[in-house]
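ERR on first pass: missing label on line 2. Operator R.T. fixed the label and resubmitted. Corrected input:
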Amino acid sequence: MSFEQGQEPRRHVPLPHQQEFIDRFFTSPSRAHWLVQAVGMGSSSTAALVVQRYHSSVPKQRVLLLAPFRVLQAQITDVLQRFGVPALQVDRYRYRELQEGAPAGVAIWPAGGVFILSTAFAKQDDIANSLAQAEWGLIVLLEAQEFKGPLERLVRDIAASSPELRLLAVSNIADGDIPAFQSEPYEVTRWTGADVSTQKVPANGGMSIKLIPFQRTAREQQLFSMIERLMQSYQLSEATRETLLSLPFKSSPAALEGKLRSLRNRLAHGDLWITDSEMDPASEAMTADELTIGADVDKQQFIASLDQKLEELEHLSEDPKLNVFMHELRQRPANQDSYERVVVLTDYRSTLFYLHSHLDEAGYDPTVVHGAMSSDNHMRAIEYFARNGGVLLATRAMMVAGFDLPNTNRVFFYDVPQEVHEFQQLIGRFNRIGNLTPLQVYLMSDLEGGSLNAVEKLKDQENL
Amino acid sequence: MDGQDPESEAHGNSEFTRELDLVSELFHRINRVLPATQQLLTIAPEMMARDAIALMRNHSYSQLPVVAGGEVLGVFSFRSFAVKAAALELQDIIQHKCAPTDLCVDECLEKFDYARVTAEMREVFDAMERDNGILIGSPESLQGILTPMDFLRYFYGVASPFVMLSEIELALRALIRVAVDDREIAELAERSLAKMYEPDRIPRTLGQMTFDNYRAIITHGDNWPKFEPVLGANRSRTGAKLKQIGEIRNDLFHFKRPMTADDHEVLNSYRDWLLLKAKLANSQKKQTGAA
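pass 2 clean. output:
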C-alpha cells in the first residue's frame, strides 16, 4: 500500500478482515462478540462501522459506547459523526441536561441516541443506575479488559435489563480473559498479523529498534543531587520526588524546570482551585497528595531554596541528550528517500516545546500534538503530517489509541516507556496492518540509569 | 422496560441530541456553575440538629437538603438553626428538657428557591443573596445545591486565565522595554519579523505587535544577548515557555477549547517566572538609580 507526499490520508475504508467481521457481527445468531486483536489492526474504526450499520438499520434503538480514555472517546465521536451518526459524548453536565429534558417516568437516555461515556463516569452510582434502567440495543466496550469490578457489574445490569442487547467487546490479545457479562457465550474473533495475512492483506514492512545512549554532564548530575537533597530535607515523599524530580530529569531540563516551577507556585500561592470534570490521563497537573510536605517545614525557606536551584537550572546550557538526539535525527537510514515521516514521542509537554524550539531553529518546522490542543487543531496537525511528512512532536498520552500514523519511517522515544505493553500500544499506532514502510525505532537511553529496562532490552531486535 | 414508545418523536431522536450538544457546549448556564464532582449530601427529617451540624462541619457545608420519600422538604442550615434556637425561650427549654441541638432538623427548616440546570445565572442572584444558596432541579428530582462559593470558583476558573495572560503579556512588554529602547525595538523587529511580513507591514512598536512577534524578537539568535540580562540565561527554554504560553493564549482568545487544570498550572507557573524576572529588573533598576 504505497503512499505519496501530498496524498489525502485514507479515511476508514474497511479492510477485508474488518468487513468480514462486521458482516459476521450482523448475520451470526450470537449476540455477544469479542474482538481480540493485536495493536494496529483497526479495532476502533471497526467498532465505529458496527455502530454506524446498527444505527442505520435500527435508528430507534439506543447505543452505548464505553471507553476508558478521553482521547479514544473524542476519536470515536469524531469518526461516528463523519459517518453521519449523531454520537453524543456525555459527561456530568450533559447528563444533567438530559435529566432535565426527560419527562417524568421516562428514561433519561433518549431512544435512538448514540451515547459515548468514559468508564470513570459510567461507573458512578447514579449514572450506573440510570444506564441500567434504560433498554439498550447495542453496547460497545473499548479496552474491554479494563471492565472489572463496578464496570463489570454495570454491564451485567445493562444486559439484564436489555433483552434485545447486542454486545461488542474489544480487547488486546495480551490481556487475558474478559468477564462474561451475560450467560450467552461470546463468539470470539482473533486478529493477529498471521491471521490477517491469510486474507491477502499484506503484512507490515517490519520494524527494528536501536538504542541511542547518552550521558548527563557532571554539572547536571551535581545539580540533580542538590535538588534531591533539598526535597528530602523538606520531607517530600519518595513518590513525589520521583514525579517531580527523577522522571522529569530523565526527560529534559525543561521538564524538570516545569515541575519545580509548578511546585514552587503551589507552595507559594496555595492550591490551583481548578479541577477538571474528569480525570484526564493526559493531564500533567500535580495533585494535592503530591504536594504534601512535612508539617514542621519552613515553607518560605523551601521556596527561597527552590528559587535558587531554578536559577542554577536556568544556567545549564549543555544538554547531551538533546545533542545526541539531534545528531541521530540528521542521520538518515541508507534506504531512505528524501520524503520521510519522523515522530518524536515524549512524556512531557515542556519537553515537547523545548524540542520544538530547537527543531524549529534547526530548520525542521515540526508539527506538534499534545493533550492541551483543541480537537480541531489536533486533527489538523495529524492530517497535515500524514499528508506532508516531516517531523511530528507528540506527547505519549496522545498516542494511546485511535490516532494512526501509518507510513512513518522513524519513531524516536525521547522518553522510553517502562513497560513492554505500553511500548507495544504506542508502536501499534505506526506499525499498522497493511503498512509497507519499514519502521526504525530509536530509544534514547540514559547510561546513568543502570541496567536496561524491559523496553530497552528489545534493542537490536528486527522484524518485531 | 421503561414504558416509553420508541416511535415517539416528542423525546428521543437525533435532532434533540444535536441541539443539546450545541447549547450545552456554548452557553454558560447554571449547569456549568454546579461542580461536576459535587457529591450531593441529604439528610432525613428525623436527624437531630446536633448530628446534622457535626456532619456539616465535617464536610465544610453550610446547609443540607432534608429529604423524605424522595422529596425535598426544605433545607437545614446554620442560619435556619440559629433562627429556631433564637426563638426558643428558657421556659421552653426547661419544660421540654431539651437543648436546641436536641431538636430534629425538620423543626429547623427553611425554604430555598429552585432553579433548572438550564437557567441563566443572573436569574438566581437575588435568591442567592437572600438565602446563601439555591436548589437545582425540583423537589422530586434534586440535582444539586448551589452556593456563592460555587459561583466564586466558577468565575475564578473562567476569568483567571484572561487575567494571568494579561499580566504575562504586560510583564513581557515591560521587560522588553527594560532591555531595549523604542528605536532598538524597531531594528530588532526588522531583523526578526522580515519573513513573516511584507517590508512595509512589519510592526515596529510593541503596541502593534502580537504575542508571537514578541517571542520571535526575543528568541532570535542575534537579538538574544539584549534580553538575556532580563529573561535569564537559557534562550531555548525561554522560547519554549513563550511558545507554550502563546498556544494557550491563542486557544483561549479564540475560544477553541475549555481551559484545563494543566493550562492553569502552566499559566500560574510562567506568570510567577515573569513576576520574579520583573522584581529582579526592578531591584536592579533601583540599584542603578541609587548608584
